[in-house]
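[agent] plan:
  1. take the single chain provided in the ticket
  2. run structure prediction with default settings
  3. attach structure tokens to the ticket
  4. add a short note for the reviewer (M.T.)
[agent] executing step 1
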Amino acid sequence: MNHKRHPIIPRMAAASLMLGLPVAGLAQAPQPVTVDLSLSANALDMDALKKNFMGYMPASVQLVEVKPAAIHKEPAYKGKPKYGAFVVGNGPKSFTYFAVDEPENGPGKIYVDRNQNGDLTDDGAGGWDKTIDSNGVANYQSVITVNASWGGPVKEEDAGSYTLMIYKQHGTARVGYTKFTARSGKVTIGGKTYPILLAENNSDGLFINARRTDRTRRPLQLFIDLDGDGTFRGASTTGADGMKMMQSEQIMLDQPFQIAGLWWEASTIASGAQLTLIPSTAPGAVAQAQAPREVEERKLIAAGVKAPDFTAFDPAGKPIHLSDFKGKIVLLDLWATWCGPCQQAMPRLEQIYQKIKKQNVVVLSLNVFDEKSPFDAWIKKNAGSKYSFTFAFDPGERDPKKSIAATKFGVNAIPTLFVIGTDGVVKSVVVGSGNEDELVMALAKLGVDAG
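[agent] step 2 finished; step 3 output follows
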């Protein structure tokens, strides 16, 4: 289980949501396009997220001490169990119950009723796939497959398997999770066929297309391979002036969007098995008046590139710059208080730092895509007690046009860590949590012993 990343999905201006170029010579008004989509179990697993420069939006379950009535047989617990349920879909078999057992002394376990028969003893031994020790506190991770059910409380209209990545810290009252499953298929527009993925971002299997005014659900997301390269990173084009531009291949469906120069809106059924693109108009007078344009390509800074200087602020509000550490090896860690994988990665980073801090290495942990008040609260609780390296706050906060992470380093998912040499050049980029071995090897190439 590597490469966990959290998504950064800024609200883009309507005019920059365009995908594809206008199709010349369209004589007829566009008609609605309906496509059937299939469940793709691991379309959005960690390898896919890394390959496509994607991230994920986590969900969580609040654990309770009261046993669900649906559970009638349990294993012999070593501690006091707590219970929860993963709910995927809206049908009669959408609830998958589980129990967490975390004794004070000993490893934690999670018993998931995958076959939904009310028996927690016949679905495995309850062990987590992976346990990471973080300063004496265990962080658990697993990938599980649960049942998805669509229809109504009594009648099921559709069903399938849904893959979830779940994680938890020992002793906490919540289990975090995110979906790996999406709907896949192909859509034909203007005589050209594009591979697509349709994803819901609540990890509940409900493909309900929330509008921008809806605060109860995250919008659906459409991934479309415009250039046929087998990825959804973006379609690169070259303008008349020779400038390389990047067309996004990842669309939020909470407002009208463009494909092949035409405006569309999305309509779906709850299971996501069917997607309809309905002809529409540009959202708002400003977007209608402004000619469609491509957005300038922004790529993640790679090894071999000079790391750009920036101005951030330390927890006391004093300016801090990357150039302040000239002549040192810098581990620039980009994270946010709301990012679960970032929190999981940080204790291991502290362990590595304790081994390397006397080897001309500093860790600059830059809080990005975040707000000042949660950063201040987090620092008060954790800096100095749990973590001893240097912290700073990105004054660009959540604005992608001002963010240090986005504008200077091309980052769109966190955690991301840059290993910067004494010459100020990026030597390695480590994306996601769970990649400590990759970081150790990168440091070894610079003569730093982190083993």
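[agent] step 4 note for reviewer: The chain has three domains: 18-41+181-296, 64-172, 311-444.
[agent] ticket updated
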